[in-house]
Structure formats: structure tokens, C-alpha cells
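Researcher: Here's a chain I'd like modeled. Treat it as a single chain, no partners, no ligands.
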Amino acid sequence: MKKHKEIEYWDLTENPKGEIYKSLVKILCDNSDKFYFITRKELKYNQEIIMQFEPYFIETYKTNKWAGTETTTAAATVFVIESNIETYKLLVKYAISLYDWVAPELPEDLTFIKNNFTWFSCTTHEKFAGFSIRSDYYKSLMFGIKGLKLERIK
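Model: Modeled as a single isolated chain. C-alpha cells:
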């Protein structure tokens, strides 16, 4: 079994907007198997936008715990979605920045996964996002996003 290097954690220090957001989402979609976003029962969302992703749903389920969040209130619905060129187009069609993914318009907490490893997660309402990097390849992808502001977390 291949040993992975120690995981490095990198936080975004600025909300990626415009071309930086598009570049980030393109890299994430191109290098992930799937991603998810969540909805919470107590908040409203634009169901028409969520349904645009429906052809690409892998699964949906309810939980009180997902990347970066644990709640004692009603369970959130997690929508696990194929990561591909069509879902990339939807992600950039409905938002011009990462933290646009928040109620009441859009689902929340975009999280990207490759080989069942969460390498990018976002807690939108807290304006927090970051990478978990365990290979030089993914680190080079992250640093290849022109204009992305990052800070390494110890």
C-alpha cells in the first residue's frame, strides 16, 4: 500500500471571486470524482437551481455531520454529485464567488472529494474554506490557481 505524505492544511484567506472562483472550481471539478453541497431544513433554497444538478446526483442522504460542521439541530440533506464539465458549468453559472453558495438562493458547503478523500471543503455561512493536501500533485494544482489567497495552517 502506497504511504501518503502527512496532510497539509491550507485555508483560503479571501473569498475567491470572478475569474479566481472559476479557476478554483475548474481545478476542483477536473481533479475530483464527486462533490457535495447541503441544504438545511430550517433554511430556504432555490429548488429550481438544485434540480439543475439532479441528472448528476450520485446519492442524497441526511446527516448531522459533514466536513467542517456538526449540528445538533435538524439533519442536513447532503447532495453528492458527479464532478464533471456539466456540473462545473452549473457551479459557475449560479455563483460568481465561493461564498455565494449560501441560503436563501443556493445550497451550502461545497466539498470536493477524490478517491474518497476530502481535499477541499467549505463552510459557507462562516466564510471558511480550505484544502487538505497529501500529495505534491494536488499542492501544485492548488498553487496553480492565479490570485488564490492561501495560508498554511499548522
